[in-house]
Amino acid sequence: MLYWLTALSDGGDFFNLFRYITFRAGGAFLTALVFGFIFGLPLINVLRRTQGKGQPIRSDGPEGHFVKAGTPTMGGLLIVGALLTSTLLWARLDNPFIWMVLFVTMSFALIGFADDYAKVRKQTSAGVSGKLRLAIGLLVAGLAGYWAAQYHPPELASQLALPIFKDTLINLGILFVPFSIIVIVGAANAVNLTDGLDGLAIMPVMIAAGTFGVISYAVGRTDFTEYLDVHYVPDTGELLIFAAGLIGGGLGFLWYNAPPAAVFMGDTGSLALGGALGAIAVATKHEIVLAIVGGLFVVEALSVIIQVLYFKRTGKRVFLMAPIHHHYEKKGWAEPQIVIRFWIISLILAMIGLATLKVR
Where, by residue number, does the polypeptide cross the bilayer (predicted)? Predict the structure, then answer.
């Protein structure tokens, strides 16, 4: 919205700064961060009063989690609120990819909110029907995939770009939308599975958002794409502002989620943030790079899939408990030890993902 202040500029004054994506990204980051600091504690107090016993703790979970009983959930409202406010304030609102990513983020936030609300109200770990959540998520992701394809350049529409191989495109045709669904819904649920320890999910999400902010900015500029030999996708540079708002909102939330957490993100936050990462990957044509950058989320999701399939087939377990961060808890690792080591892994994977921009 503030971009329109450039209409007051004569080309050499303060208002001209609003033309620059990097300046507005900085503004979005600070806006989201301040939003989190201002509204964090009041929101937590409201959630405590309204939720009573807080998020139900699974009876079959690690023993150390029972001390967290009474901690409120739906803290994702703080992140989503900061992200929405900063994006609407600093991004160009005539950009189709901004609205596509916001649509996915807010839709998955609503799905997660409904699930969190049902869990708190019923005081059970079973919320909204999994089939219903999946069905709505598939619909949202399908609309987003179709939306993105309409604004991709004709030579890239329905194409799958491969990292490292600069001239290789795989024409998915009508399968592009189903592929987009897999990316967005898969990312949303993978982040949701990762969100099991205080601070475990939010930092890798911020690292991935920062990485895709850089990717968005790079593929949205012709000079960068020519130098890096990556495909040019017009208008995606504006997604750097969204990513900056996500990082700012994430830091504001982490202030209260650092062990011991004053509030849990809940499905409200994890589904929204995972869906957002998937949507950015689809918009920038870097879906496969998301699997690298978000490799931690992939491993968390795979650990659950492997555990379920192997148990159904043999009656035995591969991991002491899934997702895999609970496996390490059962092995005796302290929660901060798991969290910080997983953060380090996420940062390494992000660097590898960024390297694919130049390794062509």
Answer: 20-44, 65-91, 97-118, 130-149, 169-188, 200-219, 239-256, 263-282, 288-311, 338-357
